[in-house]
Amino acid sequence: MESDQINFSANGDSPPPEADCGKQNHMSKPIRRTVFALILLVLFSGCTTVVVNYVIDPTFENLQQQTDLNLVCEGAPSFLLIIDSLIVSNPQSLKMLMAGTQAYASYTAVLAECNRDERMGQLSLKAKKYGLTLLGLFPKFKENMEKPVTEFENAISGFNKNDVDALFWGGYGWATNIMHQDGSPAALADLLKIEQIMLKVVELEDTYYNGAAHLFLGVYYGSRPSMYGGQPEKSRQHFEKALAISNHQFLAVQVAFAENYARMTFDRDLYGKLLQEVVDFPLESRPELSLTNQVAKRKARRLLDQIDDFF
After folding, report:
1. What would you report as the CA-atom Rg of the chain, rounded to the nearest whole angstrom?
2. Which residues of 17-49 are buried (b: 16+ CB within 10 A; e: fewer)?
3. pTM flag (> 0.85)
């Protein structure tokens, strides 16, 4: 995923491009690159492209490749503090807001495995803040975001395929906070807006980030029984699409499919099959998804151990 290489259209709906600090050459030796990146961070913190390319992106990618969850739990907060400081210096930088939204949303998702559940609500607020600020860089969204759900389509009408990165992560950062609220009316209304955001992502580029918009919609439509407004068939369709797009290698899909469809429809065989597939998956086959997949594996084992409690 190249969040720092978004090409915006030239229409008035898109934010102005950030300054280009020149093409950067890839340094082959990790130690040299790390040292050079830290020097650049000190000398050129005002140059967003350099900071993102040489510090933020490599660090975020390294975190995503970690299989040692304890290391992530202990080290990620320092990374978040660095991002916060850089955003203070560049409050309208799309690149930095994207990095902040990704980092806070991703770390919030890991917190349960860090035994720090009490921090989820507070950190998810930062994911929402950065996500909405990111989306607010697009004039039409900023003008229409507070309007009723029935008029919210105007807020996302200005996004096009080149904006999918910002649209998805902005919506996901917003949703991260809603996941940790208690179902307030305001939160439910916001979910309807996020549904529209994710449907727009599917319309523009449904394969983005391993079909993650389909994953969100699968959870959204499947997390409630039919009698309470759930739509299990829609849920299954989106989960199956996400599985196909990810080639069954983005394990969060199988876990969510089991929890939010198979369990809700009392399909024990599908539930067990999906979770066993996660447990058996070799992490080394997709190193760039190691952190997400490791979290999914841990959860799948717990859910399999509890299968008799659910069926």
Report:
1. 20
2. ebeeeeeeeeeeeeeeebeebeebbeeeeebbb
3. no
